[in-house]
Design a protein that fits this description.
Number of strands: 8
Distance between the termini: 112 Å
CATH topology: Rossmann fold
CATH architecture: 3-Layer(aba) Sandwich
Radius of gyration: 28 Å
Order of helices and strands: HHEEHHEHEHEHEHHHEHEH
Number of domains: 1
Largest sheet: 8 strands, mixed
Strand order of the largest sheet: 1-2-4-3-5-6-7-8
């Protein structure tokens, strides 16, 4: 009886084990499709991006402009003094329905006098003979981003006026971003400054995406009005937006795929984006300074050098064009050239300023 009972117990145990294994196998098979779906979803999404871009080119503008990334968040644009001294906020209507936000930093030599002053004093200060920089930032973020605030501090300390605007659709500015709209915003600000700055020099200073905006504005000013901006400074530039897209890190995974040019690069033009600095510099005649860090991981310095070579070939007066590279050991990358304490001296030397 005991042996029979023991044998039955062993059989039952083996049966329970087989049943448990079967259940475990079914459970494993049930979640395997979910795991495959989870792993495949991002791959399929990545693969679908080029086709979506080709079908809906307007989607591409979101990736290029990144104006929805309004960092730093929770900034009170009306109180720039919380981030940088000697600075006031103002708004300018650039065309009906579009108003852009601007920070105006005065030279640090006027810092004591600027305390407690309002917009009227700041406007009148533009005619004090100090050069004026209209600063055109890159994509993503706002005029309050840390490297842009550092630019205001660096060049303000070097006795420049700086007017940093958020283009339409950025920060607290109204409107929707577009290449032609950016040019309209910049020229409206140029006119506003010119009407108040007397004989002070006015420079367009573009960074990254803003370099294409700077050359667009300078070219339009020259061709349509016969007026030259006093100088253009291009920091971390590219030749045109197509070349930029072909070299930025985010497109690296697509470059080896067949149809990359057709699906993505050709779609830039279909979305109305050109930013053709390489064509613009062939027309310009104003002093042109190009700055690029050797360790720029976003827009490689070869693009800045190519743009320099194009300008140098086109300019009759070669002394008006200069290209400055910053060694990799400085670690300035794409965004931090303004952290270099030698920057103001380099700019002043190029502009023959004391």
């Amino acid at each position: 009886m005991r042996r029979r009972g023991g044998g039955d117990g062993g059989d039952t145990g083996r049966a329970d084990g087989r049943l448990g294994a079967a259940r475990h196998g079914r459970a494993r098979r049930s979640w395997l499709p979910w795991l495959r779906s989870i792993l495949l979803a991002p791959l399929l999404s990545c693969a679908a991006v080029p086709f979506l871009v080709r079908l809906f080119p307007s989607v591409l503008t979101k990736f290029v402009y990144l104006n929805f990334l309004a960092f730093p968040f929770f900034v009170d644009f009306r109180r720039p003094e919380l981030l940088v001294n000697n600075t006031i906020n103002l708004y300018l209507t650039t065309e009906p329905g579009v108003t852009v936000g601007i920070w105006h930093t005065v030279p640090s030599s006027k810092g004591a006098e600027a305390q407690g002053k309002g917009q009227r004093w700041y406007e009148e200060a533009l005619a004090d003979a100090h050069p004026v920089i209209i600063y055109l930032h890159g994509n993503g973020g706002t005029r309050a981003a840390s490297h842009r605030v550092q630019f205001l501090k660096t060049m303000g300390a070097a006795d420049f006026h700086i007017l940093a605007l958020d283009y339409r659709g950025y920060g607290d500015s109204t409107g929707r971003p577009s290449e032609s709209g950016f040019t309209t915003d910049v020229l409206a600000l140029y006119d506003w400054v010119k009407a108040r700055s007397g004989n002070s020099s006015i420079l367009f200073w573009g960074h990254s995406l803003g370099t294409g905006i700077a050359t667009n504005a300078a070219r339009k000013l020259q061709e349509e009005r016969g007026v030259q901006v006093d100088a253009v400074v291009l920091e971390s530039p590219y030749t045109n937006i197509r070349d930029a897209a072909a070299n930025i890190p985010i497109t690296k995974i697509y470059r080896q795929l067949p149809g990359f040019e057709y699906l993505i690069l050709d779609s830039m033009a279909r979305a109305g984006m050109f930013f053709s600095s390489d064509e613009n510099v062939k027309v310009l005649d104003c002093p042109l300074l190009i700055l690029h860090a050797e360790d720029d991981g976003v827009l490689p310095p070869k693009l800045g050098h190519k743009l320099y070579e194009t300008a140098l070939k086109a300019y009759k007066d070669k002394s008006k064009v200069k290209f400055i590279t910053f060694p990799q050991k400085l670690g300035l990358g794409h965004d931090y050239i303004s952290f270099n304490p030698e920057l103001p001296a380099l700019v002043k030397d190029f502009l023959n300023m004391k």
